[in-house]
Amino acid sequence: MNIRYSAAVRRDDWLHVLKNADLANIFHSPEYFDIQQSLGHELLYSCCYIDDEPVAVIVATLNRFGYYQDWVEVGTKSGGCPVMIDKYDQHPEADTLKNAMIEAFARQHLKGRRFLFYPCFHLRACILEAPEWNCVTQFDDTAFLDLHADEDELFRGMGVKCRNAVRYAGRHAVTARVANTREYFELFYACYKAVREKKQTQYISRDELRAKFDAFTQQGLADLWVAFREGQPLAYAFIWKYKQTINFVYGSSHENGWRYKPNNLIQWELIRSYKQEGYRVYNMWGIRNMNLSAGKDASVQTNIEGYGKFKLSFGPELRSLRRYVRV
């Protein structure tokens, strides 16, 4: 094999990789990084060519502001890097190929920098575990719901309490639908921010999240779902879409409406809707808190959070997830 790496961004090559990679997600896409750059962040890019065919990419953000200012972020809980076309992702030498690419990227872009690096799901051992990179390893699981099953089977696959909550919401006139308007975005963001401030956790700025809402909804890559009762919004789910996968990226709900179980109903309704549209996988993201806290040993797998237990109630499959952090 003749292997080379290039930092020159050739969009057609980038898209070739994503088209032919089963693990490709919106967080690997040019559309996502277009927004990141428009906000003022810096794109870090590498494409691997084997015998002149583009076969893998690592795409990252050097954050110029926000709560990860001056950090490099590579990958997400939705999918890591490198993302590789299927014929090489399943190759006997896949781990060697991926680690060689990660090392080349790291030596070019990560030396002397703080970073978060999520490797791709199929990588069994990552070179960033080597002492020279001085990384902490964090553990989580990402929840994936297979949408191939018929609707009745999906419903039966949910926990008893979850099924009962969906029925309860329906009996109390809770409904859910897509509401891709600025009005509902502003209501969602106000709720999201209030919840984060109450929990004293970090959150994305309004301008950044609105830029992604505007761009992705216009391009057909996202939907804002809203649960209502008697015309009043109770809960929100911001879903991002790419190829045949949907992603639960942001959600929030009003505490005074919890008794009507809107979060259960909104999830069930969006599962039904996207299944009917032909989507095959629902990536519900992680089930644990991976934030770095002072004095906390981040290498120890933490307990499943309440939101993680909520996701598990829908019966997803779990895939082990690691990220490497250098502070």
UniProtKB/TrEMBL annotation:
Tell me which UniProt keywords the record has, alphabetically.
Acyltransferase, Cell shape, Cell wall biogenesis/degradation, Peptidoglycan synthesis, Transferase
Concerning SUPFAM superfamilies, the annotation shows: Acyl-CoA N-acyltransferases (Nat) (SSF55729)
Key word Cell wall biogenesis/degradation present: yes
Instruction: Name the source's superkingdom.
Output: Bacteria
Looking at the record, the residues that make up the BioF2-like acetyltransferase domain are 163-284
Is Transferase found in the keyword set? yes
- What InterPro entries does the record point to? Acyl_CoA_acyltransferase, BioF2-like_GNAT_dom, FEMABX, PG_Glycine_Bridge_Synth
> Any one Gene Ontology biological process term?
regulation of cell shape
**Which one of the record's GO molecular function terms can you name?**
aminoacyltransferase activity
> Member of which family?
Belongs to the FemABX family.
Under which name does UniProt file this protein? BioF2-like acetyltransferase domain-containing protein
| Organism for this UniProt entry | candidate division KSB3 bacterium
